[in-house]
Fold each of these.
Amino acid sequence: MDGYYVYVLASQRNGTLYIGVTNDVARRVAEHKARVADSFTRKHDVTKLVHVERFTDINEAIAREKAMKKWRRAWKLKLIEQGNPTWTDLYETINA
């Protein structure tokens, strides 16, 4: 899976959210799940991949990540629920 990815992790349905950007979403989410990633996700047990978007341009991915981080929480929840209404952990689907 090449490209750049903006991803959203959650602690649980409607729980704590984390938005990140990476060029290897499978590796990065695995780091969060193994708790070797930054202290915010480790501290708040944010390991469930609930949304991911792919970009071909790193600048577009970074701009999207920055924009999403400024969104109201309700907008983030709506985005997740539109593409993943059951809040399924998408990690297995991207790591297959």
Amino acid sequence: MPNLKPFRDYSEHDVINFFACNTVANKGTLVAPVRSPRNNVTGPLSLSSTAPGALYNNTITNNFDLAGVVTPVVLPSYNLPDDPHGTVLGVLLKDVREFDENGRKLIFDSRKAAEMDAIVKDIQAVPILTRGIILVNDIYLTGGPIYPGDAAYLGANGRFDTNGVMVVGRFLSVADENGYALIKININ
């Protein structure tokens, strides 16, 4: 799975904070909006009846409703107009987790989630970067090795690729010994 290093350069205006992620994923993963099959628009976040908390009359919450849900790009296909995986919204800036290393649910321990620098799956809004410079690893090399200036493409499993159809950015460096490469992403 991809991972980001702390070396990043972006504006907060290029970060979207209105979506929850419905899958456990690492930061650096390319995500696509989950679309409703009925009207082909991003659907609202729907929590199951097992979600903690309750609604009471005459009470107010400081939380806001999330506009939609994203999921990691599984297999990009560009032939189906209703396929959400043919598009990409951006790159996750934080890990999305449900449990900590001891198997405890993070939704009941927000302090632990903050220590892990993780977003709680299906509950919290995840920051999604649409434009900036990031240092990411686990890049598919289907088009050969990475060269500075080459296009970075949308790959399978939420990863970047050196070959493909949809360009999501440009490589600014070759991959180092750990597989990390500098990418300038620009997702419109």
